[in-house]
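Appendix B. Chain record.
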Amino acid sequence: MLEEENIHDIYPIHQAVIHNKPIYLTIQHAKSSIPAKYVKRFSISSLAIIPIIVNDMAIGLVLVDPIHANEPVTKNDLMKLSHYLKLAVGSTLDSAPPTYLLSKRELEVLQYLANGLGLKQMAPKMSVSEFTVRDHISSAIRKLGVNHRTEAVAVAIRHKMII
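Structure tokens predicted for this chain:
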């Protein structure tokens, strides 16, 4: 929803994220503090801003229009919603990729990457071409479900697949 906006420019969103606490805005507060284009585009009648917190750090946020039959949203409602979101996100982040997911060679290239080696340095150590090293890295990235080699190394270290 707010992909074009800087959260620092939208005060209640910024406050929810920096304080790691959910915030609820009534329609009056939403209209005065959320850009009008969003209030109009999404017909916002109220807004719950819930930071996604992992290891005491906000890694994102969820915006919800929780109004239902004009019943007020309580602090308890917000805390429940925040708690369930934390459980949902935590369960997906805590699921470690199984060690057997990666081949011996894929683990080897990740370890070399963690040690700071490049393709040209890895290839002779592994007695393969640079293209084969690149293929092992690509395969590890794909199997771990990450976007780039740095993330693959971080996941492998975090889950004690490499040192």
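Further analysis of this model is presented in Appendix C.
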